[in-house]
């Protein structure tokens, strides 16, 4: 009984020991992380920016009425309204700041 | 005598139309205003209820006449029991819109812990509700609610005049395309989000509630238009009367309905003046009308053939109250 109880504990300890590897193995992992970070940082930023633009485009096609762009089905777009409430102010500012609404899209 | 010959010429009857298609759930009588759509809806509800089916007759018309025909104020009161197995409901579209707006407001307040909906959002809610498409959508959305609950064997939908349903069907098409596009846009956004999460090695991506809503909306729209277009479950009966104008209009409407894939179950002729009146001493006025109707009835038989499911005579008094409804049902279904 006592042995059986110890077994899972051993596993946990082993896992903990494995985590920050030392020596060459650890060094290589650090290098990997640094390179990955250098290459990926820009990608992440770009992806987030694109997503933000799309978010604004999305609000335009669903809530365009707020800026005077007629949008077809008001009944169902109202269901989406609660989710865009925090973005409405920035979206309006951004859309109206641009010379042309389409400039703001991409 | 005249009656028996009439029922012999009706090869297929309304009774057959229901017996042949037990999978039918949605029944609609369509046609120009004032031809007896509500009367036939009520009578059909009565007959089906007597056959032991659980039936709901409902209407979305703000000037609905179900209250009148059943002699009971049911407007905006939910399903009201009329007799064994038969319920009637008149939807109050304005009330539905108000409740819907409140639901949206509450959601905003709950989500962000606000005390008051921001002015520009409130303005948008008010402006959106003033759009004419709002009412149409609200109506069909509440129909989806009723049908989704699935409490009844038959749903008899007392439509407002034809244009309304066609308008919604064309709107549903546009809606569907619109939703498909913005869903795609939303999914692309989600892909970007997932990419960021992968790069940052985050295990879970936050679920996109908007995407969920969009899928929900598409589902609602499809359910709403399928109620009108489902080949198995829907039967749409045209109500006609033996008069030239009506026949011309119905032919046009039938074409439009076919274009939108509404399955037409058949035609019911109303307001037929009983020919056996001719034997009695009748004034020329009535005689002329009977002659006129005979001419158009012949044309109806020629055009629609066995799609004519019943001929219902002109009643000598208004059809209101269960007693009269029972009489109409007897004439429509030939038994009661």
Keywords:
heterodimer; A: 106 residues; mainly alpha; disordered N terminus; B: 336 residues; alpha/beta; eight-stranded mixed β-sheet; 57% helix
Q: Would you kindly provide a written description of the structure presented here, covering whatever features stand out?
A:
The complex is a heterodimer of chains A (106) and B (336). With 106 residues, chain A is mainly α. Chain A contains three helices and no strands. In chain A, 77% of the residues lie in helices and 0% in strands. Mean pLDDT of chain A is 72; it is low at 1-16. Chain B has 336 residues and is an alpha/beta fold. Chains A and B meet through helix 2 and helix 3 of A and helix 5, helix 6, helix 7, helix 8 and helix 9 of B.
Rg of chain A, rounded, reads 26 Å
Based on helices, strands and strand pairing, what is the structural class of chain B? alpha/beta
Assembly state of the chains shown: heterodimer
Q: Summarize the amount of helix of chain B as a percent range.
A: 55-70%
Largest interface: A-B, 33 and 46 residues
Sum this structure up briefly.
The complex is a heterodimer of chains A (106) and B (336). Chain A has 106 residues and is mainly α. Helix content of chain A is 77%, strand content 0%.
Give the topology, please.
The complex is a heterodimer of chains A (106) and B (336).
Chain A: H1 2-18, H2 23-63, H3 74-97
Helix pairs in contact in A: 2-3
Chain B: H1 2-9, H2 14-20, E1 26-30, H3 37-50, E2 55-59, H4 66-69, E3 80-83, E4 86-90, H5 93-112, H6 119-130, H7 132-149, E5 154-158, H8 163-199, H9 209-229, E6 234-240, H10 244-259, E7 264-272, H11 284-304, E8 308-313, H12 321-333
Parallel strand pairs in B: 1-5, 1-6, 2-4, 2-5, 6-7, 7-8
Antiparallel strand pairs in B: 3-4
């Amino acid at each position: 009984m006592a042995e059986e109880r110890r077994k899972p504990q051993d596993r946990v300890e082993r896992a903990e020991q494995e985590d920050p590897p030392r020596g060459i193995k650890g060094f290589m992992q650090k290098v990997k992380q640094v390179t990955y970070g250098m290459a990926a940082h820009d990608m992440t930023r770009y992806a987030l920016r694109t997503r933000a633009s799309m978010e604004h485009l999305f609000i335009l096609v669903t809530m365009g009425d707020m800026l005077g762009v007629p949008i077809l089905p008001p009944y169902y777009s109202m269901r989406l309204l609660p989710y865009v409430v925090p973005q409405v102010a920035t979206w309006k500012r951004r859309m109206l700041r641009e010379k042309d609404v389409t400039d703001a899209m991409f | 005598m005249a009656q028996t010959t009439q029922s012999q010429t009706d090869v297929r009857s309304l009774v057959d139309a229901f017996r042949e298609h037990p999978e039918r759930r949605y029944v609609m009588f369509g046609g120009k205003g004032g031809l007896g759509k509500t009367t036939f809806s009520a009578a059909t509800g009565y007959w089906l209820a007597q056959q032991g089916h659980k039936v709901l007759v409902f209407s979305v018309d703000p000037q609905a006449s179900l209250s009148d025909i059943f002699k009971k104020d049911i407007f905006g009161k939910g399903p009201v029991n009329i007799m064994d197995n038969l319920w009637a409901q008149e939807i109050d579209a304005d009330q539905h819109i108000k409740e819907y707006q409140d639901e949206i407001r509450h959601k905003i307040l709950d989500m962000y812990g606000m005390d008051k909906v921001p002015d520009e959002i409130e303005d948008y809610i008010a402006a959106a509700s003033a759009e004419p498409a709002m009412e149409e959508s609200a109506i069909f959305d509440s129909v989806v609610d009723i049908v989704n609950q699935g409490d009844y064997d038959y749903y008899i939908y007392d439509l407002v005049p034809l244009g309304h349903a066609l308008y919604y069907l064309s709107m549903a098409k546009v809606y569907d395309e619109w939703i498909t596009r913005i869903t795609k846009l939303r999914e692309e956004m989600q892909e970007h989000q997932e990419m960021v999460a992968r790069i940052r090695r985050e295990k879970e991506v936050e679920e996109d509630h908007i995407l969920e809503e969009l899928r929900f909306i598409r589902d609602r729209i499809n359910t709403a238009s399928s109620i009108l277009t489902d080949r198995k479950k829907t039967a749409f009966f045209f109500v006609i009367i033996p008069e030239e104008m009506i026949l011309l209009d119905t032919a046009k409407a039938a074409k439009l309905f076919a274009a939108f894939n509404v399955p037409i179950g058949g035609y019911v002729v109303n307001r037929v003046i009983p020919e056996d009146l001719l034997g009695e001493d009748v004034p020329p006025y009535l005689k002329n009308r009977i002659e006129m109707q005979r001419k158009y009835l012949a044309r109806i038989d020629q055009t629609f053939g066995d799609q004519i499911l019943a001929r219902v005579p002109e009643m000598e008094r208004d059809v209101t109250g269960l007693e009269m409804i029972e009489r109409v049902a007897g004439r429509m279904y030939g038994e009661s």
